[in-house]
Amino acid sequence: MKLGRLNHIGIATPSIAASIAYYRDVMGATKIHDPFDLPAQGVKVCFVDTPGENGTAGTQIELIEPLGADSPIHGFIAKNPAGGQHHMCYEVADIHTARGWFEGQGKRILGPTRIGAHGTPIFFLHPKDMNGVLTEIMEVADGH
């Protein structure tokens, strides 16, 4: 199993609109995607692009806002009313190989493999097994 690049950092926020204004007005982000609801995961999502080297794509910021009290990040926002870093996401070429490898390493996988906000298969690893960081593993096709 080979771990790929850091695809995005998930930032939980009580207000995507306020976070968009922050990344645009304070951080100078110039590429902010339109927010969209992802009901299957109980969140509203907005991606903010950062530039990479030599015109390549950089790491994205994934803003996530809970869609109601049943959202899996509702509790995170309740404990952190201003929001904060929620997870980090790494790319892999094959989600099934990666899942088997992490399971073989004794890492706890949180829930089934499912389709994530980028439209590709994902799963999450328990933060207690990943140096205290909730870690998302995401399959990418042809390197992106």
What is this structure's SSE topology?
Blueprint: E1 6-12, H1 16-25, E2 36-38, E3 43-48, E4 60-66, H2 74-79, E5 84-92, H3 95-104, E6 109-115, E7 121-125, E8 135-139
Parallel strand pairs: 1-4, 5-8
Antiparallel strand pairs: 1-5, 2-3, 3-4, 6-7, 7-8
InterPro entries: Glyas_Bleomycin-R_OHBP_Dase, MeMalonyl-CoA_epimerase, MMCE/EMCE_epimerase, VOC_core
Protein name: Methylmalonyl-CoA/ethylmalonyl-CoA epimerase
GO biological process, one term: L-methylmalonyl-CoA metabolic process
**Residues in helices, as a percent range:** 10-25%
Give the ordered list of helices and strands.
EHEEEHEHEEE
In the CATH hierarchy, the architecture is: Roll
Low-confidence stretches: none
Give the total of domains.
Answer: 1
Number of strands: 8
Number of helices: 3
Q: DSSP strand (E) fraction?
A: 25-35%
Task: Report the average pLDDT across residues.
Answer: 93
Structural class, from helix and strand content? alpha+beta
Order of strands, main sheet, comes to 2-3-4-1-5-8-7-6
Overall spatial form: globular
Largest sheet: 8 strands, mixed
